[in-house]
What does this fold into?
Amino acid sequence: MEATHPVFCTIVPPHALDKLAQAEDPSIAKAARRTLVADAAQRTSRRLTTVLGAPTVAPPKGAAADAVHRTIYDARHTQDLPGRKVRGEGDKPGKDATVNRAYNGLGATFDLYLKAYARNSIDGDGMPLDATVHFDRQYNNAFWDGERMVFGDGDGEIFLDFTLPIDVIGHELTHGVTQHTANLTYFGQPGALNESMSDVFGSLIKQYSLDQDAHQADWLIGAGLLAPRIHGVALRSMKEPGSAYDDAVLGKDPQPATMEHYVTTGRDNGGVHINSGIPNHAFYLLAEALGGKAWEKAGQIWFDVLTGGALGKQAMFADFARLTVAAARTRFGEGDEQQSVLKAWSQVGVPTS
It folds into this structure.
């Protein structure tokens, strides 16, 4: 089997932190700069892992098949990973709400993949789910580092605790699913697809946990993460890319909804957090058209492509779109599902033929 190469994936994109680092308020700028420095150190660590190989994390001895195994650690406001163990699988909730939210979010992610798609954890083989909370001080991010989830507490001025939105947890863990399946290159359109996969399944994990159908869902990524002073509702909107926030300090949501407004840039790994708005919007359009529980049809088609083996590491939007059309036909036949997939990609300007 070809080795996977874990990448360092954050929920808050570099362009947002760059904007905050230039804020007139010194406390806001300091927190953003501190976060950017910490992120740079983690990226270096990931590059070393790519060279040396990521460690294999096996299920604990005697663990039941198809059973979640969670461990939460506390970095105690340092950058030392994983930190001190504070809660293991089956332990009762403690007084730290952040620990409890992280524990529950890992469980919700495991449940969706197992119960909706028969996938045993993010690697398909029962991989334990580890998370570290209280990383660094005023750390404005959360990330998947190839081995574990790591959450900052936010600075309280721009961002709140990063365990608050369950879709942030699902988003980051889905980077692990992509790492162990299509292993999409984290640059340009393949990288934007990588980010979009995490947004799609992060949103589905939220909807699954709330038992929402496609019409009830808010289709926001990171709702509840922005502090009250910020003019915005979330980090991203799958329903209306580009509308999640418009704030004097944080800036304006730069995501396009269609290929007409595709952003060509060398920043943010070629705009992976920006142009992901296009496949995100296609998924939203499909889910709305099909109705019902979005993980059952729209999500199943996306999952089939992500894990089916035909999606190359360098896949472009059009490659992925064609595979979703084929997957819809294979699973549901030449009916409404396939036609809705074709229409959704057409609406965002991505060719399927």
Summary: Residues 26-52 form the longest helix (27 residues).
